[in-house]
Specification:
The protein is α+β, with helices and mostly antiparallel strands. Helix content is 19%, strand content 37%. The protein has a 4-stranded antiparallel beta sheet, with no helix packed on it.
Length: 371
């Protein structure tokens, strides 16, 4: 059977099914509402029947959410590969952050610098990670983020420091300023209030703090009892997300209280969760280094595997405002960009590259697009 014809039949069947549910529920509501508004009891309807109906409706609603999500999201839709700007002489990219203007910030294993790229992957700026002074010393940033005021902040695990880059310096090219000491800083992010978030890997903690204009730390707070926290990111509804090595991914609210773990809420078994982020719609996305996957955890419905192939060692993870998913693939020494929605959800989105475009070569249709 022709695939297009078969797909049309499936679409018609799905639409008829959903429409039948809508019509039946509307009809039942119209008949039941005036009867239930009179306080004369429930007729012959038993408590058990109400419970059964409630459970069935709950299941149907969950199934409809899953259908909606599966229609809305794509899997393994790789549209671009950005080579590691540090070249093959360094380790693969590990930390990644995408700013509101679409700029991409990248750190790599064993590379003493932060690369700032355009959304197309072209290098815009290079920030060498060097402490200027009598004896200039390079350091290796583990992860990177951008503060609300636009300053680049990194975690320096080797020197147990958090550093912020300041353009207002006595040095013509700016300088890195140490703003705090952490036992083993690994991941770094910014919460909804503008505070910097840092994971303390060996201590099992996440520290949050604000900075004043003189780079003085204010309003410190610590979340403890985590198991090897790796990456941290702004979460949905103003909270934050943190991944635990060989463990789970946990969501905290803006009062630093645990809301839930993804493993418990969704019944999902992680291998080695690494990069985490939330998209503009409030969905949570998690890279799994061991399983070489990326999963999306929707607000309602079951988890969806967005990337199930083509990753060697996914570490850092971020979403762009244009609705693209960027994965730092340390094992493949590049950044991989996926289009995970069926169509742009916002009119302000930048044009997306379509793998179905007739202008693409066969190599590009498979998802590999050299820059």
């Amino acid at each position: 059977m022709d695939y297009t014809l078969e797909a049309t039949h499936h679409k018609e069947k799905l639409l008829k099914t959903v429409y039948a549910l809508q019509v039946k529920s509307d009809t039942t509501l119209q008949k039941a509402s005036p009867l239930l508004s009179n306080h004369h009891g429930m007729g012959m309807v038993t408590e058990h029947q109400v419970h059964q109906l409630a459970e069935k409706v709950k299941g149907i609603c969950h199934d409809l959410d899953n259908i909606k999500n599966l229609l809305y999201y794509r899997q393994n839709n790789l549209v671009q590969q950005i080579p590691n700007p540090n070249g093959s002489s360094y380790g693969g990219p590990s930390g990644i952050h995408c700013s509101l203007d679409g700029s991409i910030y990248i750190t790599s294993e064993n590379a003493p610098c932060v690369h700032i790229l355009s959304c197309s992957g072209q290098t815009q700026q290079l920030l060498p990670c060097i402490e200027w002074g009598r004896e200039s010393e390079a350091f290796l940033p583990e992860d990177v983020t951008v503060t609300r005021s636009g300053m680049v902040a990194v975690a320096d695990m080797l020197n147990r420091a958090i550093c912020v880059f300041s353009h207002h310096s006595r040095f013509p090219k700016g300088e890195w300023i140490k703003i705090g000491k952490v036992n083993s800083p690994r991941g770094i992010g910014v919460d909804s209030s503008g505070k910097i978030l840092v994971t303390d890997y060996t201590q099992g903690k996440v520290h949050s703090f604000a900075l004043d204009h003189a780079f003085k730390i204010l309003s410190t707070h610590t979340v403890s009892n985590l198991c090897g926290p790796r990456y941290v990111s702004l979460g949905p509804d103003g909270g934050f997300l943190v991944s635990e090595e060989c463990g789970d991914v946990k969501l905290f609210n803006n009062q630093h209280k645990l809301v839930y773990s993804l493993g418990s809420k969704y019944g999902h078994q992680f291998g080695n969760p690494s990069g985490v982020c939330a998209d503009i719609e409030g969905n949570i996305l998690v890279a799994d280094e061991q399983h070489r996957t990326v999963h999306l955890f929707p607000k309602s419905g079951s988890p969806i595997c967005l990337v199930s192939e083509g990753l060697r060692k996914p570490t850092g993870l971020t979403c762009s405002t244009s609705g693209q998913l960027l994965v730092a693939d340390t094992g493949d020494n590049c950044i991989k960009v996926f289009k995970y929605r069926v169509r742009p959800a916002y009119s302000s989105d930048a044009p997306w590259v379509s793998c179905d475009s007739p202008n693409l070569t066969p190599r590009q249709r498979t998802g590999s697009m050299p820059l």
